[in-house]
């Protein structure tokens, strides 16, 4: 079963400094909403994606009020066959994928 993928049309912030600052504030406020197991799962997802993608990764996942996101910016797939097999496992966990001009976003719902 293939991973559920949505293509979204998002634009980069006109002032990246404020977007980064906003992300940091939201992360610090929302991280306490998750258990250690959920946080560990998101970090493991990010580490696993580093093996399939060549791109930009944030220091840590983004913690929102409804889920955790792992973003790969300027993404280029280095192992297509391995990524497809891994995404099949992610589908079983209910993890979704969004693709935009900014990169690829994997979402773990709360």
Number of helices: 3
Number of domains: 1
* Helix-strand sequence: EHHEEEHEE
What share of the residues does DSSP label as strand, in percent? Answer: 25-35%
Task: Summarize the structure in short.
The chain has 3 helices and 6 strands.
For this entry, give a set of tags.
alpha+beta; 3 helices; 6-stranded mixed beta sheet; single chain
Overall description:
- The chain has 110 residues and is of the alpha+beta class.
- It has one domain (5-109).
- It has three helices and six strands, in the order βααβββαββ.
- It has helices at 16-30, 36-50, 80-93; strands at residues 5-7, 53-57, 62-63, 67-77, 96-100, 103-109.
- Strands 1, 2, 3, 4, 5 and 6 form a six-stranded mixed β-sheet that branches.
- A hairpin with a 2-residue loop joins strand 5 and strand 6.
- The chain is globular, with a radius of gyration of 14 Å.
- The model has no long low-confidence stretch (mean pLDDT 91).
Q: Secondary-structure blueprint of this entry?
A:
Blueprint (H helix, E strand, L loop, with lengths): L4 E3 L8 H15 L5 H15 L2 E5 L4 E2 L3 E11 L2 H14 L2 E5 L2 E7 L1
Parallel strand pairs: 1-5
Antiparallel strand pairs: 2-4, 3-4, 4-6, 5-6
């Amino acid at each position: 079963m293939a991973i559920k993928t949505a293509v979204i049309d998002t634009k980069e912030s006109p002032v990246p400094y404020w977007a980064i600052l906003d992300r940091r504030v939201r992360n610090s406020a929302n991280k306490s909403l998750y258990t250690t197991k959920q946080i560990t799962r998101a970090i493991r997802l990010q580490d696993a994606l580093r093996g399939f993608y060549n791109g930009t990764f944030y220091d840590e996942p983004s913690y929102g009020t409804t889920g955790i996101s792992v973003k790969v910016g300027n993404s280029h797939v280095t192992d297509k066959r391995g990524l497809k097999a891994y995404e099949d496992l992610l589908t079983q966990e209910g993890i979704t994928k969004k693709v935009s001009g900014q990169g690829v976003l994997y979402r773990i719902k709360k």
